[in-house]
């Protein structure tokens, strides 16, 4: 038997195919785990930085109602024409009172508690240039003064003394009576065209007159603003009045053409509205672009030069001195009218 000669070999570790397969499987599992871990970390969005100085608290409508919003309005400012003004809270009633209040069938008048005490009887305070139906016709004092000035000017330029003021201030109850009476006599459709609803009549303001023609023989005629009376309709703005309801504006005013119906809104605004051919609904919207922080409206008329601005709500910059008026629009804010010169 042949004997193996030489040094004896050490026994090595045997690695078979099964061991290699197991090792590859372990490596694959570990690699997959690392890959998934890295993906999870990479997809996570970073948290936004926290601004500890911010106090914003958005409201349900998405607006910022927080202390981090706009700064409060300064208490005093000066207009570009040099009028010092102070920010003033005028109170809730300010929106609903004044010569520019809009009243129609969808914007009802807010009746002041003391209105009856403010009214004046036209018959007792008129000049000799026109007639008045009776002592039930009443107006606010400044509207009555303007009516007297307008009718005196009409008479002075050659107009006859034949205009008869047949209507002024009306209560809500009396307006209901007129509406029902018109509907009964002429039908509901006619009443809705020519008679305002109770609460929606401009006559509630005490700033409106209706004219008719009274002839020397005692007969009456509808006032049409034509012939010699065209002067009144063409010049009424110079006395603060406008022809409130005209052809072509029915969809805006809700009332058909009424050349006999005159509304007082003040000289500068009547002149501006007439020059731009705007009914009161249009004019109220037109004024809203002239806020205090933007360009103001300048109105030049025979009565002087006026600066006008609008403020939404009840806070407005009011001149510290001088001649000015503040009127609500009966919708959403007030209009300040300041005489510059």
Describe what this molecule looks like in 3D.
This protein has helices at residues 17-43, 115-118, 122-125, 141-156, 172-186, 188-194, 230-235, 250-253, 267-275, 280-287, and strands at residues 76-78, 84-89, 120-121, 131-132, 138-139, 163-167, 208-214, 220-222, 241-245, 258-264, 297-301, 304-312, 315-319, 324-328, 333-339. Residues 1-14 and 40-69 have low confidence and may be disordered. It has ten helices and 15 strands. The relative contact order is 0.14.
CATH class category name of the largest domain: Alpha Beta
Tally of helical runs: 10
Arithmetic mean of pLDDT: 86
The fraction of residues assigned to DSSP E strands is: 15-25%
Main beta sheet, described? 6 strands, mixed
CATH fold name of the largest domain: Muramoyl-pentapeptide Carboxypeptidase, domain 2
Strands, total number = 15
Number of domains: 2
Report how far the terminal alpha carbons are from each other: 143 Å
Helix-strand string:
HEEHEHEEHEHHEEHEHEHHEEEEE
- Give start-end ranges of low-pLDDT stretches: 1-14, 40-69
How does CATH name the architecture of the largest domain? Answer: 2-Layer Sandwich
Structural class: alpha+beta
């Amino acid at each position: 038997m042949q004997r193996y000669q030489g040094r004896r070999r050490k026994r090595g570790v045997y690695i078979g195919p099964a061991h290699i397969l197991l090792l590859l499987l372990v490596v694959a599992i570990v690699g997959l785990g690392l890959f998934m871990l890295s993906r999870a970390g990479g997809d996570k969005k970073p948290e936004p930085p926290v601004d500890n100085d911010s106090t914003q608290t958005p409201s349900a409508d998405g607006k910022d109602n927080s202390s981090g919003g706009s700064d409060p309005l300064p208490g005093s400012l000066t207009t570009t024409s040099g009028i010092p003004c102070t920010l003033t809270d005028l109170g809730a009633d300010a929106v609903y009172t004044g010569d520019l209040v809009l009243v129609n069938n969808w914007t009802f008048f807010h009746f002041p508690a003391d209105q009856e005490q403010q009214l004046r009887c036209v018959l007792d305070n008129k000049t000799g240039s026109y007639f008045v139906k009776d002592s039930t016709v009443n107006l606010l004092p400044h509207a009555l003064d303007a009516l007297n000035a307008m009718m005196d000017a009409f008479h002075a330029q050659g107009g006859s003394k034949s205009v008869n003021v047949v209507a002024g201030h009306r209560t809500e109850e009396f307006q209901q009576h007129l509406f029902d009476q018109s509907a009964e006599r002429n039908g509901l459709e006619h009443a809705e065209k020519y008679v305002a609803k109770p609460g929606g009549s401009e006559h509630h303001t005490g700033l409106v007159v209706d004219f008719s023609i009274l002839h020397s023989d005692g007969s009456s005629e509808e006032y049409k603003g034509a012939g010699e009376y065209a002067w009144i309709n063409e010049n009424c703005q110079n006395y603060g009045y406008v022809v409130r309801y005209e052809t072509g504006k029915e969809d805006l005013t809700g009332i058909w053409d009424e050349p006999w119906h005159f509304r007082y809104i003040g000289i500068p605004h009547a002149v501006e509205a007439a020059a731009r051919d705007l009914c009161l609904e249009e004019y109220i919207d037109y004024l809203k672009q002239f806020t205090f922080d933007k360009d103001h409206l300048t109105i030049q008329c025979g009565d002087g030069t006026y600066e006008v601005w609008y403020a939404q709500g009840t806070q407005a910059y009011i001149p510290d001195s001088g001649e000015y008026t503040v009127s609500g629009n009966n919708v959403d804010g007030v209009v300040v009218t300041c005489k510059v010169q």
